[in-house]
Specification:
Elements (H helix, E strand, L loop, with lengths): L9 E3 L2 E2 L7 H6 L7 H19 L3 H15 L19 H16 L2 H4 L1 H20 L3 H18 L22 E4 L9 H17 L3 E6 L7 H21 L7 E5 L20 E7 L1
Parallel strand pairs: 4-5
Antiparallel strand pairs: 1-2, 3-6, 4-6
Helix pairs in contact: 2-3, 2-6, 4-6, 6-7
Length: about 280
């Protein structure tokens, strides 16, 4: 389902934003890139991201990338996404700010002319990293965008010759998860599939020796907001009870609930969506 945007935002004399989210992808597909090889690379990269987000039903972000593809196709200047353009987790702002500074410095030093394909990929992967880090629900996708950016940046940065430094300590192994369990409509009972996932949560938590397990409850947009807030709480409590009965320490398992405020899939009010009827479980040391 498509969600209509509230405003129209002009891009250039050649293009106009569609009135509804998700419609810009077709406009971008029909564009003919002109101008520099760097902008041609941006066009292709942003078009691919727009298609990927559209396939995941993330129509607003699909439009964001499609609009950037249209700007690049028109040979307009398209800068790496600004840090304040997205609501990033507070602990990720520093890393992404540093990454953007390095990218802007490389582009300012002529990377777009020397290595247009690599420079374009670095910028596209940075914007991909920004988008996935804002969602913060798909660790593999975040890691893939971050790694793609780092690899492309390494190809365009003209590193000065410096004395070799001792290797940095190996980072601590990443914690497993996050985990997601789903619920039937208007229901807080754990399904057999949910119990299977939670059994793995217990095993992984004990093996990783985590100190905190947080279960966050969610609901879809079918029904009253107040009712959905309570339903999300009951779902989180059902997960907590299962984890405690399976052997996790009481003080280790925490809950939170967001009602219908943080959907994975954007829908109109009143629409049932199973992927939004969920509890997300995350670990921390």
């Amino acid at each position: 389902m498509f969600k209509c945007a509230r405003v129209l935002v002009p891009l250039s004399s050649a293009f106009l934003l569609s009135a509804c989210a998700g419609f810009q992808l077709e406009n971008a597909k029909n564009a003919t890139p002109s101008g520099s090889d760097f902008n041609a690379g941006l066009y292709k990269g942003y078009l691919d991201l727009a298609g990927s987000e559209f396939a995941e039903a993330d129509y607003p972000d699909s439009d964001v990338f499609a609009n950037r593809a249209l700007e690049a196709a028109s040979n307009n200047s398209v800068q790496p996404e600004a840090i304040n353009a997205r609501k990033l987790p507070a602990d990720k702002v520093g890393e992404l700010s540093s990454a953007r500074e390095q990218l802007v410095a490389a582009l300012g030093a002529g990377a777009a002319g020397r290595k247009p394909a690599e420079a374009a990929r670095a910028q596209v992967m940075f914007d991909c990293w920004m988008q996935e880090q804002e969602e913060n629900i798909q660790p593999k996708d975040i890691a893939a965008c971050r790694a793609g950016f780092a690899a492309a940046l390494a190809q365009i940065v003209q590193a000065p010759k410096i004395a070799a430094k001792a290797p940095a300590p190996a980072p601590a192994p990443a914690l497993p998860g996050p985990y997601v369990v789903y619920f039937d409509f208007d229901n807080d009972k754990l399904t057999p599939d949910a119990k299977s996932v939670l059994a793995k949560v217990v095993r992984d938590a004990e093996q990783a020796k985590v100190t905190k397990v947080v279960a966050s409850g969610h609901a879809d947009r079918a029904g009253d907001q107040g009712y959905n807030a309570g339903l999300a709480t009951r779902r989180a409590d059902a997960v907590r009870l299962f984890l405690l009965e399976s052997g996790l320490a009481k003080g280790k398992v925490l809950t939170d609930a967001f009602g219908e405020k943080l959907p994975v899939v954007s829908t109109e009010d009143g629409v049932q969506e199973q992927r939004n009827r969920r509890v997300e479980i995350k670990f921390s040391k």
